[in-house]
Structure formats: structure tokens, C-alpha cells
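testing teh design pipeline on a random one, pls ignore if ur not involved
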């Protein structure tokens, strides 16, 4: 049964410091969540958030960081996982997700790939079919949330245009926030700082110089790949050194500027100009 596949909701371990840049977004999401969950009686209306933008830009990370900072349980589901070939099972899965979250309040439900769960009904040509029933179930659950202050929903998608407009009406996923690529050096630097927080950097590393070697328009996931690659290169060099000169194993892998340089040479940005033109 799908219910067994759902991870138990729990408070994530992603702190604000793990999220580089995106400070306006952090503030806006935090404000909305606090307003809806903590100050509900003062809140004008309930609203969910839809984070949209290219893959790897930090949508999941942001949602988890908000849950961590507010000490809220977090239940993450991917749209396609809920869909099931058996009649009635997909909408039952949606119901199950909300039941699980209700049993773990205060809780954020994070719907990744929301477009696959709630595609525009006009386009899917599925009137009265499974998608229609899934969307109806989702709408019923969302509308029920208005009375509860302890559950909050965040959706994420790369294709907001494919989502059924009924999902985006007031009181549902009505706050659309764009999460974009790191365009300028300043945002790239903030993300690099967050990603190398637990690194032991060699004294020759100045992250501003490293960032100056990066191409424009990178996602957080691209920068993560640069950092993890640089760390692996440093590890490889260290292993070579240890096997050659037999020196003792240090307490940490020191990452140097040439490790970053090599990692950057091998980097292929994941989001192309054409992809970005779409947003
Ligand atoms: P998808 O659309 O593919 O689900 P996403 O937008 O949810 O992507 P995340 O899963 O949040 O992207 O990001 C992928 C990884 O990239 C993160 O686990 C993290 O390592 C890194 N990352 C992305 N954005 C940032 C950021 N702003 N600061 C630090 N790390 C980041």
C-alpha cells in the first residue's frame, strides 16, 4: 500500500545557513508560514505556496529549511509516486498523505512535481478520469485546510503552466514564488559559502576568486556539483600522497584552489539559455 511507502513526517535538519542566497524568498516563505500556522486568528486567509523554477535551484532545500527553522514536521511527496493504476487508488493516496500529515501536526506537506499530480484538466483530455478525481480530492483537502492552523502546503514545479488553474485559486497554492538560477557573482558566492561551510579550505582558497572562475547562470545544484567534485579531487590527491610518502592520515580533507579550478573546468551548467527563456 502507498501509505507504507510514505516516510514518517519529521523535522528536517536543514538550517538557514545551509541555504545560500535567496534571502528575499526565505523571508517571504517564513512570513507566510508563520502567518498561516502561528497567527492564524489574525491571518486574513489561508494560502499555500507554489515554488516554481528550473530544477536544482533550491526549492526543496528552502521548504525544508523553513520547516527546520519553525520546528515543523515535514512530509515530502513526489507527485508521480501518488499515481496508481488501480481504480480509486490515486485519490486514496492523496487522502492518505493528508491523513498522515494531520496525525503529525504541526506539519508542512511538500508536493514536489505538483504538475504531474494536477495537470491542467483542459489539456489532459481526461475528463472524469483518474486525474480529474485526483485533482478533486486535492482541492477538497486544500479547502479543508482553511479551518486548521496546523497544516501548511508547499508545492514545487518546473512547469507552473501545466498546473490546473483551480489549484492556484485563492486559499490554495495561491502564492507563486519564482526560484531562479544564481545569475550574479554575489548570489553564487553566498551559495558557495553555504556549501563549503563544513569544508576545510586550504589557506590559498579565496571563495571570491573561485566564484570569478564560474560561468553565469548556475543552479545551486551545479554549485553543489562543483564543491563535491573539488572535494573528491582533493581526496584523490591526498590518497596519492599518502600512498607515495606514507605520511599520516590528516583529520580532514583540505580542499585547495586548484581542486576548485579542476572541478570548474569540468562543469556543464545544467540549465541552458533556452530552458531559461521559458521562465
Ligand atoms: P527539483 O526541481 O529538481 O526538485 P529543487 O529546486 O528542489 O530541484 P533542490 O533539491 O532544493 O532543488 O537542490 C538540489 C541541491 O542543490 C540541494 O540539495 C543543495 O545541495 C543544492 N542547492 C540548491 N540551491 C541551493 C542554495 N541556494 N544553497 C545551497 N545549496 C543549494
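output:
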Amino acid at each position: 500500500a502507498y501509505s507504507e511507502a510514505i516516510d514518517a513526517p519529521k523535522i528536517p535538519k536543514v538550517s538557514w545557513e545551509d541555504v545560500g542566497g535567496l534571502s528575499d524568498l526565505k523571508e517571504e516563505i517564513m512570513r507566510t508560514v508563520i502567518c498561516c500556522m502561528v497567527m492564524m486568528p489574525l491571518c486574513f486567509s489561508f494560502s499555500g505556496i507554489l515554488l516554481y523554477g528550473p530544477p536544482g535551484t533550491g526549492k526543496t532545500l528552502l521548504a525544508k529549511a523553513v520547516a527546520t527553522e519553525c520546528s515543523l514536521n515535514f512530509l515530502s511527496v513526489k507527485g508521480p509516486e501518488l499515481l496508481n493504476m488501480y481504480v480509486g487508488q490515486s485519490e486514496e493516496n492523496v487522502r492518505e498523505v493528508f491523513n498522515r500529515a494531520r496525525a503529525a501536526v504541526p506539519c508542512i506537506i511538500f508536493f514536489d512535481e505538483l504538475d504531474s499530480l494536477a495537470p491542467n484538466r483542459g489539456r489532459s483530455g481526461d475528463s472524469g478520469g483518474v486525474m480529474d478525481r485526483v485533482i478533486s480530492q486535492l482541492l477538497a483537502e486544500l479547502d479543508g485546510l482553511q479551518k486548521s492552523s496546523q497544516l501548511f502546503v508547499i508545492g514545487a514545479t518546473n512547469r507552473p503552466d501545466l498546473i490546473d488553474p483551480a489549484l492556484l485559486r485563492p486559499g490554495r497554492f495561491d502564492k507563486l514564488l519564482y526560484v531562479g538560477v544564481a545569475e550574479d557573482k554575489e548570489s553564487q558566492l553566498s551559495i558557495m559559502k553555504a556549501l563549503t561551510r563544513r569544508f576545510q579550505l586550504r589557506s590559498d582558497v579565496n571563495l571570491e576568486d573561485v566564484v570569478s572562475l564560474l560561468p553565469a547562470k548556475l543552479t545551486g545544484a551545479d554549485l553543489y556539483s562543483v564543491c563535491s567534485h573539488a572535494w573528491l579531487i582533493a581526496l584523490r590527491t591526498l590518497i596519492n600522497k599518502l600512498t607515495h610518502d606514507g605520511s599520516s592520515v590528516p583529520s580532514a580533507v583540505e580542499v585547495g584552489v586548484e581542486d576548485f579550478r579542476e572541478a570548474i573546468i569540468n562543469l556543464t551548467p545544467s540549465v541552458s539559455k533556452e530552458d531559461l527563456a521559458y521562465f
